[in-house]
Amino acid sequence: xxxxxxxxxxxxxxxxxxxxxxxxxxxxxxxxxxxxxxxxxxxxxxxxxxxxxxxxxxxxxxxxxxxxxxxxxxxxxxxxxxxxxxxxxxxxxxxxxxxxxxxxxxxxxxxxxxxxxxxxxxxxxxxxxxxxxxxxxxxxxxxxxxxxxxxxxxxxxxxxxxxxxxxxxxxxxxxxxxxxxxxxxxxxxxxxxxxxxxxxxxxxxxxxxxxxxxxxxxxxxxxxxxxxxxxxxxxxxxxxxxxxxxxxxxxxxxxxxxxxxxxxxxxxxxxxxxxxxxxxxxxxxxxxxxxxxxxxxxxxxxxxxxxxxxxxxxxxxxxxxxxxxxxxxxx
Length: 331
Hints:
The protein is α/β, with parallel strands linked by helices. The protein has helices at 18-34, 56-66, 84-97, 114-121, 130-141, 169-178, 193-203, 227-245, 265-274, 283-297, 311-330; strands at residues 4-8, 39-42, 71-78, 102-107, 162-166, 182-184, 215-223, 279-281, 301-305. Helices cover 44% and strands 15% of the residues. An 8-stranded parallel beta barrel has the order 1-2-3-4-5-6-7-9, surrounded by 8 helices. Strand 5 (162-166), helix 6 and strand 6 (182-184) form a beta-alpha-beta unit. The chain is globular and about 65 Å long.
């Protein structure tokens, strides 16, 4: 059976705080480690009242320090917001502290709105420098060469796996050209999933990092004891998604018994489209949904996210997903 992993947005819930979110993040990481999940990733977002993981490398260190075996990393660091040398130093530090357990996933988007982007970078570049920045970052992790003037300390000579993340064809093509593993954000942007996977596999060039293509697919998975209960939990993510599209991002709200009148037909259509790869339901429904996606995509790994208001319900959802994985493996 292919590995299952976790993407945690460290949700700040209505009435809660970032401190609460971090406690829940560590608790979830400890549980999924016991349930056999392969890696635990956190994502960089800025100026988002419902996401606590803006200082992504700091939270990665917190989670890695509170667990023992699960891989921990970024899904991802938005590289346009940072100097590659700084990221090499941060993840070189993490790899030095938690050797063999750190992943570095890189995104090309800023992970925020244009005004916040300008505040982060103090001015936007004239052109898309992402490919050059990725290669510069790779160079900082290589062994230091004679006469090398700038080095990452720590970082140089450390084996930190670099992934490229994307929701379009651009990063798929770059990952193929550089021979890197690739993760597609189908949990919120499903349109180009199949074409990106095909392009990545067809154009992949083996590298020192990776001999053959390795593709991970992102899914929202919300599991409960019944389809009805899972669909109710799902309304928290639906509310958050619609509020974001309306330009009113906020904390994660409690689930609703009814969504009647909460959004227009056009908004509902957009919601259904964006969340087309959400797997929501009872254990049996989730097991069937996961199998269908694995069969369709040929994914080498799935990374699951679950924006669920109640922490206990979120834990149970991941536990049920782990059971579904084990049942699929046994079958």
